[in-house]
# Entry
Amino acid sequence: MLAVAVLAAGKGTRMKSDLPKVLQDLGGRSLLSWVLNSARPLAPDRILVIVGFGAEQVQASLSDQPDLEFVLQAQQLGTGHAIQQLLNPLKNFRGELVVLTGDTPLLRASTIANLVEFHRSQRRSATVLTGILPDPTGYGRVFCDDRQKIIEIVEHRDCTPTQRLNSRVSSGVYCFDWAELAIALPKLTNHNAQQEYYLTQVFDYLPEVYALDLADHQESLGINDRLQLAQAYGVLQQRIKQDWMRHGVTMIMPETITIDPEVQLAANVRLEPQTHLRGKTQIGSGSKIGPGSLIENSEIGADCQVLYSVITASSVGDRVKIGPFAHIRGESRVGSDCRLGNYVELKNAHLGSQTNAAHLSYLGDARLGSQVNIGAGTITANFDGKFKHVTTIGDRTKTGSNTVLVAPVSLGNNVNVAAGSVITQSVPDNALAIARAMQVTKPDYYDAQGQKKSE
Ligand code: UD1
Ligand code: CA
# Structure
């Protein structure tokens, strides 16, 4: 049997935040979700999350995972005290307990699986996942003999200056034989610099404890403050971008690009500088995104171009040209071969194929057919001060520059609207609509010097 316990009760004082530390965001997921995701592939028999500070908030954030068992550590008296809270829930449990800390989000699932496999093959009391860090400041130092058997673990604050020179640290991840751990746990004391019950003290009471060094020490990065949060984001981004480049995505100046973990990119996508892909965004083959674009929870087809634009919660077909400076949002659906250019905003607008809005437009709550041409400065006036209304525009219809369509209103197929019209009544198929004041021209109104002539 295998159980996993995740330590998530601490406040995270060093974050200087009201949010429980384990709920801090890293690339669109909480630190704790990252840790749980890395434990899932082990298919443990039980997963226990130890909560305390902000327990309700932490529990609510995981409501989509009903199999989790929450264990309350009402007072946070240290990591050892946290694990003591498992003595009751795991009373009849036999097997291994893997302990993870809720603040080490970069740990890979394969690393935890290796730890468990190694531990089982060696039949020891406990195995500690350790890392050799270039800068071990802040971590517990692990002292081993030459066979990797652990002599003791000393917290940074309790180390002598010489002990601090040891660069082998505890990642805070352990695999224990639960029966042996359960006997050692009640023996913990809080006689140390922080007057806490340290989990690392159990190794004083367990006979056979060995260290297993991480191949990639970055996995052990523990997030205690916002500097480490930023550092972890850097490592995460490096992993994600290297992975996509190996899958055939081109990136120009990748250090200026950010990509969330759930983004999906086809081969031959080209990402230009300062491009940010968020949420569940998908991009089709041959599309060129950027420079300077933000795409969030949206689907972009193949062979599109997006230049200095923002697209959120929307979908775009194939061969669409967007930007510079377009904003597409609010569940908009753009068909194939469309062009949306300079200073055009779409909100909940559905466009057929080959429809263009190239300059200075707002299309909100609008349903447009195919081959529509929206003239510069066309606006759908969709809000009457209280309610939003829909504008419908048929196939092959054209609006002149500076048209205002006062919704609810519809234009049929093959309609032509004269420039400067304010359309308040629907227009049938094949009609020309003109809705503006007639022009008045007064000849010989000025003399040759530009002075108004007297009448
Ligand atoms: C801990 C380890 C240290 C290790 C480091 C790795 C101890 C004493 N120290 O130090 O050896 O190198 O992690 O990152 O174990 N927590 C509780 N209840 C508590 C206290 C903490 O659930 O009473 C949780 C926190 O929410 C956090 C985790 O335990 O997720 C670790 O606590 P933290 O204070 O960050 O420990 P470190 O000082 O980083
Ligand atoms: Ca920590």
